[in-house]
Write a structure and sequence with these properties.
binds thiamine diphosphate; binds magnesium ion; 37% helix; binds iron/sulfur cluster; Rossmann fold; 14% strand; 288 residues
Length: 288
Amino acid sequence: MEVRESILLPGTPSCQGCPHSLGLKAVGLALDNPVIVIPAGCSTIIAGIHPKATINAPVLHVPFASAPAVASGIAAAFRRDGKDRQVVVWMGDGGADIGFATISGAAVRNEDIIVIVSDNEAYMNTGIQSSGTTFWKAKTTTSPTGKKEERKDLAAIMLMHRVPYVATASVGYLPDFISKLEKAREVRGFRFIQLHSPCPPGWRFDSSKTVEIARMAVKCGAWILWEFDGRFRLSPASKPYKDRSRRKSIAEYLRVQGRFRGISEEDIKAIEEAVDKQWKFLEVFESF
Ligand SMILES: Cc1ncc(C[n+]2csc(CCOP(=O)(O)OP(=O)(O)O)c2C)c(N)n1
Ligand code: SF4
Ligand SMILES: [Mg+2]
């Protein structure tokens, strides 16, 4: 792994144990001189409020729905000027809900950009509202008795856009995320990574446990690490858990998060079944 400097400067205003901060550090370690486009969300605050800045790279703060469209324009301008520079959209899952039309449009046009969705499973910056990727039965301010709707599988949706590179990653496995970014860096066209980002205040766990809980998600099979670069494959950290008998307890993963406080045995069983279904669903892609 080449060593680069972190683009995240000390003293960011994020909460302690913030997963976005971990992910942004990894972006700086993997990519040379990126231009970063950020729609509204916690990352807007983390990037700093004028005249201060905590990201040591050019950052454009843009309205929610426009980020991939803005990034497409910047990439086109670089292309016109003969400059080879990575244009990265760094957005939240809420941004990916509200901005889905422009993510999809940029993917269909195979724009030369990297879109990273740092998925903390809710609209955290505005007070923990439920998003399309919020975990089943998780309590948020808009799902006070636990989220009842299905979770959308954003990475699979992006894969079905037939773009050259799609992956899932986790802040619990930063070397894996960095190596995926390094691979994405070498690919031309639309690249997409959904980064699993457990959030201490939003998920209600101690700020020292971000990485531990991100790893629990992978080990119980609730978050599956995979990559598509022309061929679909499970990433090494997730591979063992294809075998259901090797997965750690989902109930334990839920128990350490306050957002599942009071969850019933019946709901835990429903979540276990949903996780099994997700693994089965991915088998379809394994034949790609
Ligand atoms: C069009 C529009 N609608 C709503 C908002 C208010 N808003 C700002 S940040 C945010 C939540 C963002 O959630 P997410 O993208 O998941 O990022 P997170 O804060 O979780 O990192 C919302 C709803 C806005 N800025 N613009
Ligand atoms: S609410 Fe979560 S994502 Fe937002 S700054 Fe705090 S730890 Fe980071
Ligand atoms: Mg979010």
